[in-house]
Amino acid sequence: MGEPNTVDQPVVLIADPLPAETVAGLGPGFDVRHCVGADRAALLAAVPAADALIIRSATRVDREVIEAAPRLRIVARAGVGLDNVDTAAAAAAGVAVANAPESNTTSVAELVVGLIIASLRRIPAATASVRAGEWQRAAFGGTELAGKTVGILGFGRIGRLVARRLAAFDMRIECHDPYVSAEAAAEHGAHAVPLDELMRNADVLTVHLPRTPETVGIVGDAELRLAKPGLLVVNTSRGGIVDEAALALALKEQRIAGAALDVFEIEPPLGSPLVGLDTVLATPHIGAGTREAQLRAGQDAVRAVRAALSGGPGAAGR
Ligand code: NAD
């Protein structure tokens, strides 16, 4: 068993590494403890004393952990998804669950802009060429964004930030999202169109959907056959939303020009037909990988813990 609780101070157990300044944001009045959440035995030993548990990706909070934590009032994940938390078990035990859905949207939107320009100006290949001692200026002809059309599939938080950034490059912005009205899209500078029209019109298609049964494979062979030959497909959302086999075929048959992918059906994408293609830029799921996004995620988690343990409005507890 872990250390006993002190009389008045709620125990906040931090099970994955967080920046020190984030932890300091908890302020006084908490007994802050640390454990290595990926070490199952250490987690199960520490969690009985915890009033709040802060995690990132490495700690799995399942029914066993929740049942081992009779004092627990909140699990806060300093990140976007809740894949590593059994939310049903938490709800059944009256434990609140919080995440940080807004924390990394700017980072992802900026990565999208970077991937688009890196692809259209062939920056990685040009860098490799110079590094190899070559100076082939004519070999790296590119494409401008100005006057082209970007199709944004999924017009939520990240889709809208991408729209704003690409508008500054004088692109025409189209979007498809059945849950967003044409008026709301227009307020963010985008023309709402059906999916087939988006596929026909886009010079760049960027995908910002959640992965659901409805969205898996939503960009498949039939959709890619509508595309312009110059299309660049960008996916920074979740693997499998763009069908990988259909995308690889479209690229090999030169029906589209390129793809830039931060996410894959299976990560790491060992054996994927996409990674070896020289028309594909691939990054290892780094959309949220900025200092600012990590800090923000930690701050959001700390804020949720403070609110839950303060007993104020919106606070959760048993
Ligand atoms: P969001 O929920 O704000 O927006 C998603 C949008 O998709 C919503 O507007 C919704 O109406 C729309 N949508 C749902 N089903 C649709 C469908 N069938 N057709 C068209 N639109 C549909 O989400 P967000 O914060 O913008 O995140 C978008 C994606 O980016 C998520 O999958 C998220 O997991 C992913 N993400 C990736 C990284 C990374 O590291 N690469 C980081 C953060 C988020």
Explain what you see:
A seven-stranded parallel beta sheet has the order 8-7-6-9-10-11-12, with helices on both faces. The C terminus is likely disordered. 33% of the residues lie in helices and 14% in strands. It folds into two domains: 111 residues, Rossmann fold; 178 residues, NAD(P)-binding Rossmann-like Domain (Rossmann fold), CATH 3.40.50. Strand 6, helix 7 and strand 7 form a beta-alpha-beta unit. Bound molecules: nicotinamide-adenine-dinucleotide.
Superfamily at the CATH H level of the largest domain?
NAD(P)-binding Rossmann-like Domain
Unreliable stretches: 313-317
> What's the shape?
elongated
Strand order of the largest sheet: 8-7-6-9-10-11-12
The CATH architecture of the largest domain is 3-Layer(aba) Sandwich
Report the radius of gyration as a whole number of Å.
23 Å
Number of strands: 12
Q: How would you briefly describe this protein structure?
A:
With 318 residues, this protein is α/β, with parallel strands linked by helices. It has twelve helices and twelve strands.
Keywords:
elongated; binds nicotinamide-adenine-dinucleotide; 7-stranded parallel beta sheet; 5-stranded parallel beta sheet; 318 residues; 33% helix; 2 domains; alpha/beta; Rossmann fold; single chain
